[in-house]
């Protein structure tokens, strides 16, 4: 019994230490003054790597989720004779929730795991150490551009996801199931508020982007530099990011939309 | 060696994960010479290089490089100071997304504002020095282990450092590759006047090029001097290491309980 309590205590201490290390790490990454001339090309390269290369999965997922929403929405709403409201249902669902959340989960799986594996492998092959010994700070040269790229790319990807999803919903609802196109777009425009819905959705994706990118780069930088260590860090990135996104989504939704 | 020391460690104590790696190490590394740090695997040779490079900090004792106490430098000062150091890692540690040419040009692009044609000339000169000018367009994945280390060596001397540290440069090399590296280390030291610290457990190669050597074991320096002085060192542990005897002060058998007990012959062997 005592052993279990001690083990529980050790896990708690280890968790708190890990949070502290991640905080110090973040402070180290963000503390430097950005150097536009040298930093921008590095940022651009990472934006391509984590943003542009994630587009395919984001667009395809957004399209299918929008189409499924269209089908399900039509089935449910037509029971009440309100299939004309399908546009607003799809738009609100995507802009407020599914856009930011699903994009973040896909981002963690596609770009987050790649970031962790790349940084972990750089650590295992002593590339980060050699950079340090050349007088180049890897936190600024390697980590900062990747963190900022994740932070910037996520909201853009979430917006694209929602747009494609709305278009996918239209394909099913209007083109296939015959909902009047005017009511699809008209109801959407009447019910989706730019500040309350769109901006809040973007704020969510900014927060998710920051958290996912932070977890990914920290796990890579802090991993045990062996193949098993990198594998474990990559898994942790996906699991921790997913849990953090889902947990934060509830908190943010309660704050943004919880006017009960 | 006091006045001519480039690196000086005095009573350095360092522990990691609850294990004492150094328990009062005192070493002076002379300026402009090749000093070999040798010792059995796990004796902390690479850790010593990381302490000198400021990647780790000692628990107590003093460590100075060119008169600067490394552990007291602020982060920015330390990074600036490292521009005077070069380090050849065991794996080479080339940047895998950059070509050979770009790897060697990297330190110059980051730390200097030299025009492109001058960077080009310096890169080609450094690659020529290691015999790989013709391989400048290759990627690190296309190089053999020995070539990888030679490119890393060219990169580590790109900024003409005062100090160069070699971490196990001969490990895993075939005889030709080993001969090439021995020649390069010797030539670079004499032509550039570098202070070189060579960490290795390849006794023959290390002693053939070093001016001084230092043997570390059990967290302490057990022998130091010129290669000739070490060959006649009175310590049995030094002689066991230099001559590769399988048994001696470092025992062949890992500590264990009595053999009779493990074999179930507690009453004695009949």
Which whole number gives the mean pLDDT of chain B? 86
Q: What strand line-up does the widest sheet of chain B have?
A: 6-7-8-3-9-10
* Strand-residue proportion of chain A: under 5%
Most strands sheet of chain A: none
Q: What percent strand of chain B? A: 15-25%
Counted by DSSP, the helix tally of chain A is 9
Order of helices and strands of chain A: HHHHHHHHH
Largest interface: A-B, 13 and 26 residues
- Low-pLDDT windows of residues of chain A: none
- Please provide the count of β strands of chain B: 10
Query: What characteristic shape of chain A results from the CA principal axes?
Result: elongated
Terminal CA distance of chain B: 60 Å
What is the radius of gyration of chain A? 21 Å
Number of strands of chain A: 0
Task: Categorize the overall geometry of chain B.
Answer: globular
Low-pLDDT residue spans of chain B = none
Main beta-sheet annotation of chain B: 6 strands, mixed
The quaternary organization reads as: heterodimer
From the N-terminal CA to the C-terminal CA of chain A, the straight-line distance is 45 Å
Short synopsis of the structure:
The complex is a heterodimer of chains A (260) and B (270). With 260 residues, chain A is mainly alpha-helical.
């Amino acid at each position: 019994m005592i052993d279990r309590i001690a083990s529980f205590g050790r896990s708690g201490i280890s968790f708190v230490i890990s949070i502290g290390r991640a905080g110090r790490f973040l402070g180290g990454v963000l503390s430097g003054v950005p150097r536009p001339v040298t930093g921008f090309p590095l940022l651009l390269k990472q934006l391509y790597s984590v943003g542009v290369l994630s587009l395919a999965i984001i667009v395809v997922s957004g399209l299918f989720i929008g189409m499924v929403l269209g089908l399900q929405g039509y089935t449910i709403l037509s029971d009440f004779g309100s299939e004309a409201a399908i546009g607003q249902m799809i738009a609100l669902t995507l802009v407020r929730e599914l856009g930011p959340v699903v994009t973040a989960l896909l981002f963690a799986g596609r770009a987050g795991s790649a970031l962790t594996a790349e940084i972990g492998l750089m650590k295992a092959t002593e590339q980060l150490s050699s950079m340090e010994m050349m007088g180049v700070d890897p936190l600024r040269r390697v980590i900062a551009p990747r963190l900022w790229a994740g932070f910037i790319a996520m909201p853009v990807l979430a917006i694209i996801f929602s747009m494609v999803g709305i278009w996918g919903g239209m394909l099913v609802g209007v083109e296939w199931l015959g909902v009047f196109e005017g009511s699809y777009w008209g109801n959407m425009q009447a019910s989706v508020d730019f500040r309350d819905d769109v901006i809040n959705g973007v704020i969510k994706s900014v927060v998710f982007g920051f958290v996912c990118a932070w977890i990914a780069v920290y796990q890579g930088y802090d991993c045990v530099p062996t193949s098993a260590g990198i594998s474990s860090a990559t898994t942790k990135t996906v699991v921790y990011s997913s849990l953090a996104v889902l947990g934060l989504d509830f908190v943010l939704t309660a704050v943004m939309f919880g006017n009960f | 060696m006091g006045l001519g020391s480039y690196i000086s460690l005095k009573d350095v104590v360092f522990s990691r994960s609850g294990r004492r790696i150094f328990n009062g190490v005192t070493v002076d590394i002379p300026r402009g010479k090749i000093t070999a740090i040798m010792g059995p695997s796990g004796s902390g040779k690479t850790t010593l290089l990381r302490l000198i490079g400021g990647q780790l900090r000692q628990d107590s004792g003093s460590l100075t490089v060119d008169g600067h106490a490394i552990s007291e430098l602020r982060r920015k000062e330390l990074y600036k100071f490292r521009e005077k150091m070069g380090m050849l890692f065991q794996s080479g540690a080339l940047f895998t997304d950059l070509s050979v040419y770009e790897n060697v040009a990297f330190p110059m692009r980051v730390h200097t504002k030299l025009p492109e044609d001058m960077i080009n000339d310096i890169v080609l000169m450094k690659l020529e020095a290691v015999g790989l000018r013709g391989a400048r367009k290759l990627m690190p994945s296309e190089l053999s282990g020995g070539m990888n280390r030679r490119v890393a060596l060219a990169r580590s001397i790109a900024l003409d450092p005062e100090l160069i540290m070699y971490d196990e440069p001969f490990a895993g090399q075939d005889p030709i590759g080993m001969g090439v590296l021995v020649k390069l280390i010797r030539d670079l030291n004499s032509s550039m006047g570098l202070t070189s610290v060579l960490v290795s457990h390849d006794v023959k190669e290390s002693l053939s090029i070093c001016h001084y050597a230092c043997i570390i074991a059990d967290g302490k320096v057990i022998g130091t001097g010129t290669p000739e002085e070490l060959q006649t060192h009175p310590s049995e542990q030094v002689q066991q290491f230099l001559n590769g005897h399988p048994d001696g002060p470092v025992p062949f058998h890992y500590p264990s309980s009595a053999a009779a007990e493990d074999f179930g012959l507690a009453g004695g062997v009949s």
